[in-house]
Amino acid sequence: MNSQVLSLDLPHINQQLAEAKSVEIVQWAADTFGSGLVMSTSFGIQAAVMLHLVTRVVPDIPVIWIDTGYLPTETYLFAEELTQRLNLNLQVYQSPMSPARMEALHGRLWEQRDIEALNRYDRIRKVEPMQRALQELGATAWLAGLRRNQTEHRKQLDVVSQQGELFKVLPILTWHSRDIYEYLMKHDLPYHPLFDQGYVTVGDWHSSRPLTADDQDERDTRFHGLKQECGLHLPQSLGEAKSRDSSGL
């Protein structure tokens, strides 16, 4: 990490970017971090927004996709469609432990409906591959499509923050669902195919379901409603990691 990155004045930067447009935030990140800038995608319901927004400014940015091995067929097809359409520099990472081996050693962790089991699943299939991706790609900053109205944890986030040794930049942090819809319509971009089946957020096939009238929050449709985050966007210090018990992606 270079000295310029280490000397960033985050309170001042967040004040400067408070009224900035999303594309201006992406441009600031590109100017500030250069080749150390990467982005991540889950190819979720609204993934096309961030992928289109960012690659218009940085066409060849490394796009990290953590393939858990348990994604719905529709997600793999959606990923292929967007990769070809937007000419993505896609970097696919997976756990070194295959799904079959994980199930043999630990069982079907998602069926245990237990926070500790879900967190172990996330560490194996998501967090370790992401940490390895960031290290191997030499990342100093990470663009992500988190929004404040998605989870309790995300309500507290700043546009630019530091997570471990990395800086996290969130260009659409203040966007609402209407902003997402309008952007997709303006640029003729697709939703994930499962949106038409009632999904408002989608991850692995075994831990995602359509929204129902009984759900109080869209994130209730993930992880059996036991938690809101998978750990990718949580601080990794021992003390802060305890927040996974109530929120973790």
Instruction: For the largest sheet, list the strands in their spatial order.
Output: 3-2-1-4-6-5
Helix amount: 25-40%
Assembly type of the chains comes to: single chain
Overall mean pLDDT: 83
Global geometry? globular
Strand content: 5-15%
**Largest pleated sheet:** 6 strands, mixed
Continuous helix count: 9
**Termini gap:** 26 Å
Number of strands: 6
The low-confidence runs, each spanning 5 or more residues with pLDDT under 50, are 1-5, 226-231, 236-249
Secondary-structure-derived class: alpha/beta
Query: Which value, in Å, is the CA radius of gyration?
Result: 17 Å
Q: Which series of helices and strands comes N to C?
A: HHHEHEHEHHEEEHH
Describe this structure in words.
This protein is α/β, with parallel strands linked by helices and 249 residues long. It has nine helices and six strands; from the N terminus they run αααβαβαβααβββαα. The chain has a six-stranded mixed sheet. It is globular, with a radius of gyration of 17 Å. Mean pLDDT is 83; it is low at 1-5, 226-231 and 236-249.
Summarize the structure.
This protein is α/β, with parallel strands linked by helices and 249 residues long.
